[in-house]
Write the structure tokens for this entry.
Amino acid sequence: MGDAHDLVLYSYWRSSAAYRVRIALNLKGLPYRIVPVNLLADGGEQHRAAFRELNPQRLVPVLVHGERVFRQSLAIIEYLESIRFEPPLLPQSPRERARAQALAQLIACDIHPIANLRVLKYLEREFGADEEQKAKWCRHWIAEGLSALETLLEDNPSTGSFCEGDEPTIADCCLVPQLYNARRYGVDLARFPTLTRIEQACLELEAFREAAPERQPDAPAA
């Protein structure tokens, strides 16, 4: 299968899903190489035949480890957990583990998919949505999801410095990219003090800062 030095991440600098995996890789201290996939250039490099062979869904991230190919950000993070346990991103207690996974899935499965690039392109192509209409769509659905997440986290005894307890988990790997995305579309985050408090705790860690979109090799020059 190869050792950790064989890890190759197909990523796009501003992809929320790829951002999650970069955070997890950094938290685990796993060395990896990024292969950029420009989702916008020339109609999107994800549609090229070579990438479709890696992922028929034509989505990033894709993680290649030796001869194995892994898709879907949450599955990739769980795979990383299996090859390097420390520090754990999935709590050991069944209840705590389930809560961390549920919070991660709320973001990755319910908020992110309906405001991603291919959905916005469909709205434009099929319904003639302009840039402001697409941004309004994103603001609505992101705010709806974040409101539920805030309710689940505020005043919950399981919420600590991070989403679940006092160490970052898979839930925090998902939260920070989603808040980055929320700001892109102008969501008022003042409504979510618990989420932004946790985000600040995350951003005190170099693993989160190094994973930021602007620090990626394919990010546009400032």
Remarks:
- The chain has two domains: 7-87, 94-208.
- The beta strands are 7-11, 33-36, 62-65, 68-71.
- The chain has a mean pLDDT of 94.
- The two ends are 39 Å apart (CA to CA).
